Amino acid sequence: MEYKNILLEKNDGIAVVTINRPDKLNALNSETMKELQNLFLQLKDDDETGVIIITGSGEKAFVAGADIAELNKLDAISGKDFAESGQAVFSLIENLEKPVIAAVNGFALGGGCELALACHIRIASENAKFGQPEVNLGIIPGYGGTQRLTRLIGSGRAAEYILTGNMIDAAEALRIGLVNRIYPQAELINRSMELGKQLLSKGAYAVRQAIRAIKSVDELSLKEGLNFEASLFALCCGTEDFKEGTSAFLEKRKPNFKHK
Ligand code: COA
Asked: In the chain, fewer beta carbons within 10 Å around the N or the C end?
């Protein structure tokens, strides 16, 4: 499929997805959301892709939010559909059983912050700015921000940012755990690729089960979660990668994972 608003570059198991509407600060219009959905459905089943990096085109923005020109036309009926269909795209990303890294290279506002929140790992450039400014438009976050931001940074902090719409600079984002690392902008993509390569060097089967286990926290009680973890641990124990990883350690050599 041809993508109008997204660039895709595949390199040794890593797919770099760039939201490409720089003149609109990479705002997510419905066409871009549809393209993101199609692309992630494709990457999900793509055996050549083990890690995905999402970033924004240009030096100013990751994604400056949902497209406000489109938001402006919503009413109480179409608004529900808008939020639900956007949530479905971000849930698809979150539930992908391959690591998805947000390389946040500038403004990550509204839907942009929510897109980063749906990724498994967030790293950012020093000029990145996060925020959920929807109250300034008379709405609330609708692509998962109230849920994922609150789970990630806690309800006290999330309430402040969602109720004020204030931006969070990169240093503050790092301090509150909204991002894992910050780098000079010129280094961001290379650093993301390094992280991607590190993830690719692990057994993909174990990585997949780890993502499933971590994501289950949002849905399960501690007791159920421990039970789920034990089942996934057991599945890993039945793999060739487990035999290889433990044998390689004992034989003092690097593992050669076959991802099964
Ligand atoms: N939707 C649609 N267009 C957007 C947009 C969005 N979310 N964010 C930026 N743009 C467009 C602007 O309208 C402008 O387009 P134009 O040149 O055709 O007028 C272009 O992108 C550049 O943005 P501009 O506002 O001129 O840049 P700036 O450097 O002055 O300000 C921001 C940058 C990010 C602070 C500002 O663009 C902004 O507040 N954007 C909206 C953020 C937001 O509320 N997002 C949540 C939506 S739910």
From this structure: N
